[in-house]
Amino acid sequence: MKKTIQRLRTFLRRLFGRHARMAWVSHPIFMQHSPGKDHPDSPQRIAAIQTALKEQKIWPYLQNIEAVEVQDKQLALVHPRNYLSRLEANQPQEGKIYRIDDDTVMSHQSLSAARFAAGAVVQAVNLVIAKKAHHAFCAVRPPGHHAHSSKSGGFCLINNIAVGAMHAIAEYRLKRVAVVDFDVHHGDGTTEIFKDDPRILFLNTFETDLFPFPEGNIERGTNPNMLHTPLLRGTGSRRFRKIIRTQWLPALKRFQPELVLISAGFDAHRQDETGRLNLHEADYAWLTHKIIQAASECSGKIVSVLEGGYTLEPLAKSAAAHIGVLAGLPKAQYATAYDQYLNASRKRFPKLFR
Ligand SMILES: [Zn+2]
């Protein structure tokens, strides 16, 4: 019965509710963050996702919203002024780059792009809380989850998702915000920022022997709601889904979040050149669906934010699978077929699923 009502609501929303559609929040400035032609964070990433959304006919179901720049007082909830002043002082001139470390590079417009990326998340939070959008996806660059409160790294300058979470807490007095991070890399910046803040539930899968090499180095604090779920190299759909089913979903249901923010990195896909996990694009559709179900008390209040995913083709198809489900569209046929294949083999070969 509950499922039928939910389906009916989704159908009516798609039919009549222009403002109740999912929001795509982005800005042309994200193309101008240019860390160099050999850098994995290519300006083409967002365009590749957009092309896949159009090809799969998901695009017409989205409201296209232009991001606004974050305000200093919103940034101050996460990053101290002296850190931001340091970034500002290092901003290179047009045509030049400034290397913070081997991976993290600033071009002339990078800091502006980072400010609009954080602004996009703040705006998306405002949209879903005001019910002007039913879920939102922030197509932003540079990514954010490796940015600590006072340290950049791993391509990240400003922790976009942390700024969005703190804005939701400060502006709307939310008491329970879930941050879900399925990027192949450990969200070390988000961990540092929220390790002592019990208003945040942080669910985090990552490959163990990959940057930032979290094995034994994960920062621990007083927040009991930090759930780090390391994955060994080669982990595929079966093991991944089992971990989500047994660890993430019960934690999400127990926490009863008022808002869910997703650090959506798609670099755990088997074809992504960055990591060595073996996820399939159908896993992103499956996981998104499970998150929506487990966080049903905050219906419509999910804001997903692009983190990693660097090989364009798997990035585009994975993001499209994720966004299609967030937009309330039926799962693509290939995703349903893949789920059925996994379910059938779960029954036939239960040992594989232990
Ligand atoms: Zn990543």
Shape: globular
Helix and strand content put the structural class at alpha/beta
According to CATH, what is the topology? Arginase, Chain A
Query: Tally the helices: what do you get?
Result: 11
Helicity range: 40-55%
Strand order of the biggest β-sheet: 2-1-5-10-9-6-7-8
* Low-confidence regions: none
Protein name: Histone deacetylase family protein
Family: Belongs to the histone deacetylase family.
Domain Histone deacetylase: 39-325
InterPro entries: HDACs (IPR000286), His_deacetylse_dom (IPR023801), His_deacetylse_dom_sf (IPR037138), Ureohydrolase_dom_sf (IPR023696)
How would you portray this structure in words?
With 354 residues, the chain is of the alpha/beta class. It has helices at 2-16, 44-55, 72-75, 81-89, 110-129, 160-172, 188-194, 237-255, 281-294, 312-326, 333-348; strands spanning 22-26, 62-66, 97-99, 105-107, 136-138, 177-181, 200-207, 226-231, 259-264, 302-306. The chain has one domain (20-353): 3-Layer(aba) Sandwich (Arginase, Chain A). The strands form two sheets. It has an eight-stranded parallel beta sheet, sandwiched between helices. It has a two-stranded antiparallel ribbon with strand order 3-4. Helix 2 links the parallel strand 1 (22-26) and strand 2. It is globular. The chain starts with a helix and ends in a 6-residue tail after the last helix. 49% of the residues are buried. The mean pLDDT is 93. It binds zinc ion. Zinc ion is lined by residues 183-185, 265, 267, 307-308. Zinc ion binds at residues 183-185, 265, 267, 307-308. It comes from Neisseria lisongii. This is Histone deacetylase family protein. It holds the Pfam family Hist_deacetyl. InterPro entries: HDACs (IPR000286), His_deacetylse_dom (IPR023801), His_deacetylse_dom_sf (IPR037138), Ureohydrolase_dom_sf (IPR023696).
